[in-house]
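ok trying this again, last paste got cut off
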Amino acid sequence: MKCKDNSKNPNKIRDTVRKRYGEIAVTSGSCCGSGKSSCCSAGGVTADTIAKSIGYSEKEIESLPEGANLGLSCGNPTAFASLKSGEIVLDLGSGAGLDVFLAAEKVGKNGRVIGVDMTAEMISKARNNAKDFSEETGLDNIEFRLGEIEHLPVADNTVDVVISNCVINLSPDKEQVWREIARVLKPGGRVAVSDLALLEPLPEIARESIELLVGCIAGAVLVDESVKMARDAGLVAVETKCTPYPVDEQFEAVIPGIGKILDLVPKGKKPGDYVTSMLLTGNKPK
């Protein structure tokens, strides 16, 4: 099942997402305050809490420039990308740079990491964070580019690894995103994407919610559909691993709209019956 919002008015969806994430960049977090733990709620949930719950280690979190973790992740793709020294990595929807910085340390001074984001405010924030990262690590192997993931500002066959974290679900043209991933990968290159996905279709009222879309839920598609899109784009050895994602009203401060799903699912159902954190890996044929 395709997301109706995505097919009905893709420009409106894209503009809504751009505006929301621009606001997040300017306020240095998804809800309140600034700093490494930039989000808070009555339940004590922070951006770091979210990161730890979905696979980031304490060491990884502490290594990041202040403000790089905005609590917008749904997995840790760098943990499964098997990054090697000297590789070129592309991060789709790089935000404030969280995964870019982690990848940069893994590929080292002979490698390079490119972050692409469609939000000018996020690019500005990420570039400022990159200055702090460079001063701290001595590495100068990062670049942030403004662009849409459906039309990547990257040449054909130039990237060893594509990563992405909780971003493709926001795209109004996911098939095009996967075609772009295949285009920019070198022959034999690989992809590791963390994304919110569906175990079963959401109720129609939830799928029509803009608020849930910018919270990454209404734009999600079924796990099998993600696999099909990756394969149709030409990727092989496509595999997925799904783990529970903390869909709960206490995370409302970190992920806008996520608590609303509690009111929209049928009686007897819970959000976890629908939403999962999916890791998708695959390769471009040699």
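PB: full thing came through this time. DSSP finds ten helices and seven strands in the chain.
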